[in-house]
Amino acid sequence: MKAIITAAGLGRRSGLNGIMRKELLNIYVSRDGTIQLRPILDELIFRLMRMGIREVAVVLDPGDSISRDYVGRAYPDVKIFFQKERKGFGDAVAAARDFVRDEGFLLAAGDGLLMNIESYRNVLIQAEARKRWTLFIMRVQDPRRYGVAVVKRGEVESVVEKPDTPRSNFAMCALYYLPPRIFNFITYKDGNAELTDAIDSCIRSGIKFRAIKVPKKSWISVGLADDYIRILGITYKYAASSMR
Asked: How confident is the model at residue 224 (pLDDT cuts 50, 70, 90)?
């Protein structure tokens, strides 16, 4: 299995404003029997490789020399692609199209992490074996802040990005398994291509998406500055508990 990680945003909601990318914000991790601080992007790559995913690509902004240098030093085998212009999440994914070619792939955003992602390894293996379109969802209090999925009997009926009137309280985590046909559905509207729109087009065309429900507490994201201290607390407790 291959994996694409998108990390091309400016991180304005993180208060960084392009000085440093949010994907390089540190979280606590357990490595080599000690508690360490590592960028969330580093930990995501580390976890994916520990799960057996050896071919990983990261999509960066071409002006982001800090992330490029970091990934190049820490993970020299990771392929780096660039989103030439900020034209949406779907456009960032499309930047690595040549990397996946005709294979399915795991897609993750570099500013988020499913803390117990290793426990879903078999789910992802089955998704790849059966070419099963899969997205991860969590129940949230205010779904208007997220991409929202309407789910029935474990199957996704529709998705929409940050709706004013959500039809469900299931938010999409930035974690997916996608066959290569997804690229046929990534289209541009007003100059931007959004992955949520592409997924909804897939569903309306008759493609079935499986929804994997995960606990809200198991998903972390460093996207908001005022939430970062809480994320540090969560990751410290997780790192400490994994050493017992």
From this structure: confident
